[in-house]
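quick one before i forget lol
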Amino acid sequence: LEFRRVLFRSRGDGWVLSGSKYWTSGVDEADAIMVVCRSELVDAKGRSPLSLFIVPANAPGISRTPIETALHVPETSFTMHFDDVEMGPGALVGTEGEGLRHVFAGLNPERVCAAAINNGIARFALEKGAQQARDRSVWSTPIGAHQGIAHPLAKAYVAVQQARLMTARAASLYDA
């Protein structure tokens, strides 16, 4: 995957965004876009600080190109192009140069929630698979009595339990 940078610069009392970014999802359904971008200015260590902005999805200078994917998903992903998109001072979220910190303040709990949801889905699927292994019989023997079924189910059970423990630990660390 290629990533192209989105840069920002100050203009008067506002900001201007330029550049492009791959894999922005759901823009065709959004009223606004959160954009993390680099400053054109470089600090003493050679890094460009990141800042977070909220930009109207239909702002002049924004264009998007759908990304073709092999998967059929409920939302379309786009390559976003920002061609001197002007924003007022209220577009900056938080403090200039602290954008990554602001993004992770939202991403971290979202990731814990997504892990919890996926753990629930995995438990449900495993329960259904185990029930099928008990209910389905071939030559009067449940298929779950065969190692070819029992061992993969046991391995999946261990993996799901590990995922649940990791999710609980992540939630605990986030809460702390």
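fyi The longest strand covers residues 14-25.
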